[in-house]
Amino acid sequence: MTIHQLSIFIENRSGTLIKVLDALKEANIQIIASTIADTAEYGIYRLICSEPLRACEELKNANVAVALSGVFAIEIDDQPGRAAEAVKAFSEAGISITYMYSFLLRGKGILIFRTDDNEKAAAVIRDNHLKSIDENDLSALA
Amino acid sequence: MSVIHEGPYFNPEFETLTREQIEALQLERLQKTVRHCMNNEFYRKKFAEAGITPEDIKTLADVRKLPFTTKQDLRDTYPFGMSCVPLRDCVRLHSSSGTTGNPTVILHTQKDLDEWANQVARNLWMVGLRPDDVFQNSSGYGMFTGGLGFQYGAERLGMLTVPAAAGNSLRQIKFIKDFGTTAIHAVPSYVTRLYEVMKEEGVDPRRDTKLKVLAIGAEPHSEEQRKRIEDMMGVKAYNSFGMSEMCGPGVGFECPEQNGLHFWEDYYIVEIVDPETLEPVPDGEIGELVLTTLCREAMPLLRYRTRDLTRVLGRTCPCGRNHIRLDRMRGRSDDMMVLRGVNIFPIQIEKILMQFSELASNYLITLTTDEENDNMTVEVELAQPTDDYNQLQALEREIRRRLKDEILLTPIVKLVAKGSLPVSEGKAVRVVDKRKVYQ
After folding, report:
1. Verdict on whether the full-model pTM lies above 0.90
2. Does B392 touch chain A (CB under 8 A)?
3. Are residues A62 and A79 located together in one domain of the fold?
4. Angle between helices B346-353 and B389-407 (to 10 degrees)
């Protein structure tokens, strides 16, 4: 039920981010969503993109330190309170969300998140009729 | 030995020898030392390999016929293989940490300890300290020779001596004020630290203390650093040279002229050699310091390669001492780093880093001076990126902890992406020293 996310280790010095973006541009990969957090020395640049498996290979070829990870993507209506409902479902099931980011795509809200228990999380999504979307859906929307 | 407690010299009969007298004394003591070395199997073998006997030492220049001794020899003969006296005649053992195998052990007889204390006392007397002074030794004790070395030397001189040891700056400052401390021995970076804490506490060393002399050593520092320390503390700071293989502190010390360190030639033969060819270099040229002990009973060392780089500045001095003057140490002929008085080899860092499967094999050690403190930064490449910050931070913490256990200092650890550190042809550059001392 998860989708591929690229996790890229980025050092906090100028030029490291552009190296990644240039490599993606060269490979004609489209970025759908991305997030980067700041710590003193380095960050993990997480991104959802078109053709994640090929993107990962292309980045590795460009000597970028990248790992693939599985994250959930669920679609919610772009209305107040929808994110709260979704997160509450996980919280009540005792699942921790390690990190989360969101974006709007064609008028729909997309929540991307990672949990500490993917199996349980998948069950919660099914039981609560949350709309999980896969890579094809995402690419189609993008 | 005779000691007079007045005048500028602690051992006037030795400190004011002429060049001819120094050399005559050195020859006599060298011959005696070489004969004494025949009590030891290691040296007997070395002499046999070199095809020499004690009778071959006829002039002082014949010292060059003797084989060199290295730290590796000390490791190979660990623990007692280089002792020239029975163990029951020894009263003290100092050991340095093992880096790539065995640690090194230095043994002392009671006479060795007495001579050591005399050298330190001579140094402290030379820079104006007298029995009325109060000496606070803010250096590590235990195996680190700067502790007991200065303790016994300061006591020999007759000073009230406070074994404050390193650290706990607030207590140090309280002692300085309450005991009327007039002299401190510490590594230079610690003096700076002490000053910072004084400032925070509103203590002005000029106004609120009786300090007049600082003895600083055991870590490389530049002339500029010394001047800064003198300006901060409002006192003279004298450079001290020592190494545990020779005894510890006491081997060389600056006189009030502050123009190089006098190395005591009644105790040591000083040679400066090209570290590649091992041939002597002319005065003024930088080479590796090689020392031969002349008074040691338990563990005489012949032509010991210190790996420290320096040069001869002169053999006379307005202070009246004709003992050779050497420049402050300019670096090392091996890859040993000296940071806050601690000796560290890159291999120690490497050994720890390679224990982590998460890390790649490329790393870089950078030494910097931040404000006044020397710091070590270890950058290491991550073998496999991860999506988990906590994992990265836990990894950093664990690297830091294990490095601290190994080198006794806490370095700054930086994880970097694989391929981001410079890769050099052949031998990789592992250490970049940006400290002010080498600029």
Report:
1. no
2. yes
3. no
4. 140
